[in-house]
Amino acid sequence: MLTKILIVWFLVSFGAGILFAPALNSIHLGGYPLGFWFAQQGAMYVFIALIFYYKKKMGEIDRQFDVHEE
C-alpha cells in the first residue's frame, strides 16, 4: 500500500510537474498549461487525497489487528 502511495506521489510531484510538463503543457486547463497547473495547484489536491486514502487504509489495518482507538 505504501509503495503505491509513494508511486502516485512521485508521478504527480516529479513526473507531472517536471518530467511530463512539456507534454502536458499542450493541454490547457482554465487558461493555463496543464503542466504548470499540476506544479502549482493540482499536486496539492492529489496530496490531500493521498492523505485521506492513507488514513482510511491505516484505520482498516488497525481494526484488522484489533489495535484501533475507540
TrEMBL record:
The keyword Transcription does not apply. Signal peptide: none annotated. The chain crosses the membrane at residues 7-28, 34-54. It comes from the Bacteria. Keywords: Membrane, Transmembrane, Transmembrane helix. Residues 2-68 form the Sodium symporter small subunit domain. This is Solute:sodium symporter small subunit. It comes from Accumulibacter regalis.
